[in-house]
Amino acid sequence: MEMVDIQTFRLENTTGAYAEVTNYGATLLSVVVPDKSGRLENVVLRYKRIEDYLSDPFYTGSTVGRIANRIARAQFELNGKTYQLDKNDGKNTNHGGFTGFNSRLFDYQTNDHQVIFKYRSANGEGGFPGNLLLSVGYSFSDDNELRIEYKAVSDMETPFNPTNHAYFNFTGGRENILNHELKIHADRYLETDNEYIPTGKILPLSGSTFDFRDYRKLFPAINTYFISNSETTIKHLASVREFSSGRKLDVYSSMPGIQVYTGDFLADPYRPLAGIALEAQFFPDFLNQKHFSACMLYPDAEINHCIRFRFGIL
């Protein structure tokens, strides 16, 4: 892939805050917002060189799909046919396999307020059925809300579960995230096995290690899917705050839950616990768990979902 094909874009609002994105992986490169003193600083992990994203194993800021998270045994059955997927996570599939959206070069267009990335995922790519057309739109408002809009259409029935994989750190990366505090707007979570595959059990947060219904510091490490307790179309899924910077973030989405990952497997050039990923998405492994909330594309019927990251000051 020639570097000349990779483009970067800046979305700046009237306050001087901005976000940067690239068409490689429809990736979020930076979000530069003020702290409590008004100092502008990037609050997501990023590489120093754009070419480092070509070999990034951590999905840093990328658009993830076709299916975010893990699919057990790298297979699923649909309409009587078994589909075999890439085994890129042991015996399982994770984040779309070896040819996921994170490693694809998107076409792009811009308008007055948005950058729109587009990609055609061919039938059979990663093992998934259907020619899928994906659009990922980024915009950044004057009140420091970063909006990501997903649109997709397929010529065959196929699963679809996108997310964004940014890692947030409100200290500008000077410290780890252990002094960040998390609040989850949920009452239930998914139990998983030691490979992070859901067992099928939906458990109450009350009395569990993962009870973040009130703000708590990020310890121990978390790699958990939380189910929204809201019935609204756009759901308030999670909130994060950090007092030394005075920054806070609220995450909203049309999707039914959020995977929280505290980056304990991050490595060079990062370090473990360098950032927290807040991945709004449908239930992990919904293709093999029929009672889970699922997202399916049907022929020629467009589907739309969104994620909203609302930044503010405490």
Helical fraction equals: under 10%
Distance between the termini: 43 Å
Which runs of at least 5 residues are low in confidence (pLDDT < 50)?
none
What is Rg? Answer: 18 Å
Level-1 CATH class name = Mainly Beta
Describe this entry's structure for a reader:
The chain is an all-beta fold and 314 residues long. It has a single domain, classed as Beta-galactosidase, Chain A, domain 5 (Distorted Sandwich), CATH 2.70.98.10. The protein is 0% helix and 43% strand. It is built from no helices and 27 strands. It has a nine-stranded antiparallel beta sheet, with no helix packed on it. It has a six-stranded antiparallel beta sheet with strand order 16-25-24-21-18-19, with no helix packed on it. Strands 1-2-3-4 form a four-stranded antiparallel beta sheet, with no helix packed on it. It is globular, with a radius of gyration of 18 Å. The N and C termini lie far apart (43 Å). The model has no long low-confidence stretch (mean pLDDT 96).
SSE topology:
Blueprint: E1 8-12, E2 18-22, E3 27-34, E4 40-42, E5 63-64, E6 70-71, E7 75-78, E8 81-84, E9 93-94, E10 107-110, E11 115-121, E12 132-140, E13 145-154, E14 158-159, E15 163-164, E16 167-168, E17 181-184, E18 186-192, E19 198-204, E20 216-217, E21 223-228, E22 235-242, E23 247-253, E24 257-261, E25 276-281, E26 296-297, E27 303-313
Antiparallel strand pairs: 1-2, 2-3, 3-4, 5-15, 6-9, 7-8, 10-11, 11-12, 12-13, 13-27, 14-26, 16-25, 17-20, 17-22, 18-19, 18-21, 21-24, 22-23, 23-27, 24-25
Could you list some keywords that capture this structure?
43% strand; 314 residues; single chain; Beta-galactosidase, Chain A, domain 5; nine-stranded antiparallel beta sheet; mainly beta; six-stranded antiparallel beta sheet
